[in-house]
């Protein structure tokens, strides 16, 4: 037993001696220690910078997703300025245009860049003048109440123009309903069944009386599949329809979820004199006939009555030129 203890003590003493020698060697060469410290510091800085970049990227993803949803909602309301939902302050102005609210609402709308900066500036100026925390506290409470009131008024108009009960706006005021309000906003942005107040379903459009003059011809475009399935559009001689996702450029408008339909996809004009259609493709994804032929871009193409055309390569949206 004693022999084992002696051997253990001897081993421990040897390890201590080696550590002492290593420490002495490092101390005798301080340049190595300095170089090692610099390398460690550089590694930490690089890793920290990478984490900051990743954190910033992940924090911006929800911002841009929300901006895209607001832009899609604005398209339904025919609001111009697609860049605005992605820029602070401009986003709030864009939202006011959707609900047709005064621009000054942005100073009392939710907790955004402009509201936080405005309140911060006012509080700072008042504190410099009065040095009173009581006044600042009262001001903040009054502003929070005003913010809730004007945010509620905005969402009342917002939900009303999209066909919802205006009292749905309470969801955007009560914090516990935040997720439900987010779901509603996404449905309004991306659902094909939710439309802006002045939207008229093409299926419910009244039939045009037609050209009854002698020798007059009339065509009709019928939706075969997709968003406008079973819808019909009467075409007088020289009448033209433009298909696309942009309300500013098209009169047969598709939602943003139809990715293979361009903003201005194609135009279809009825040539009653020659009893045919003239189709011009403007898109990046193409306009195709039922035979699989892709129409030449920016070149008017004459098609006979009865031809079926498809918008985009997926062929989800088809129309028959009767």
General description of the model:
- It is built from 6 helices and 10 strands; from the N terminus they run H-H-H-H-H-H-E-E-E-E-E-E-E-E-E-E.
- The protein has helices spanning 2-28, 30-76, 90-99, 113-130, 133-161, 178-190, and strands at residues 219-225, 232-235, 240-244, 252-253, 266-271, 276-281, 287-289, 301-304, 307-311, 317-321.
- The longest helix has 47 residues, at 30-76.
- Mean pLDDT is 81; it is low at 1-5, 14-28 and 205-215.
Indicate the overall shape: flat
Q: By helix and strand content, what is the structural category?
A: alpha+beta
Beta-strand content estimate: 5-15%
What's the β-strand tally? 10
Low-confidence stretches: 1-5, 14-28, 205-215
User: How is the main sheet built?
Assistant: 5 strands, antiparallel
Quote the distance from N terminus to C terminus: 107 Å
Q: Provide the succession of SSEs.
A: HHHHHHEEEEEEEEEE
Q: On the 0-100 scale, what is the average pLDDT?
A: 81
Number of helices: 6
Strands of the biggest beta sheet: in what spatial order? Answer: 2-1-10-9-7
Helix content: 40-55%
The count of domains is 2
Radius of gyration in whole Å, from Cα?
A: 34 Å
Descriptive tags:
disordered N terminus; alpha+beta; five-stranded antiparallel sheet; Tumour Suppressor Smad4; about 325 residues; single chain
Write the layout of secondary structure elements.
Elements: H1 2-28, H2 30-76, H3 90-99, H4 113-130, H5 133-161, H6 178-190, E1 219-225, E2 232-235, E3 240-244, E4 252-253, E5 266-271, E6 276-281, E7 287-289, E8 301-304, E9 307-311, E10 317-321
Parallel strand pairs: 3-4
Antiparallel strand pairs: 1-2, 1-10, 3-5, 5-6, 6-8, 7-9, 9-10
Helix pairs in contact: 2-3, 2-6, 4-5
